[in-house]
Amino acid sequence: MMYFVLLVILFAFAIMVKLLIDYKEVRTDVPIRRVDVPEENGERQRPMPHIDMETTRKLESEMTEEEKMNSYKTRGLFLRTLKNIGCQYEKEEEGDRIFFAYQGENFFVEVSDDRFYITVYDTHWGQVELYDIDEFTRLRKAINTANLNCATMVVYTIDDVAKTVDVHCKSTFPFLYQIPDLENYLRGELNDFFRAHQLVGQEMTKLREKEETVES
Question: What is the pTM of this model?
Answer without folding.
Answer: 0.67
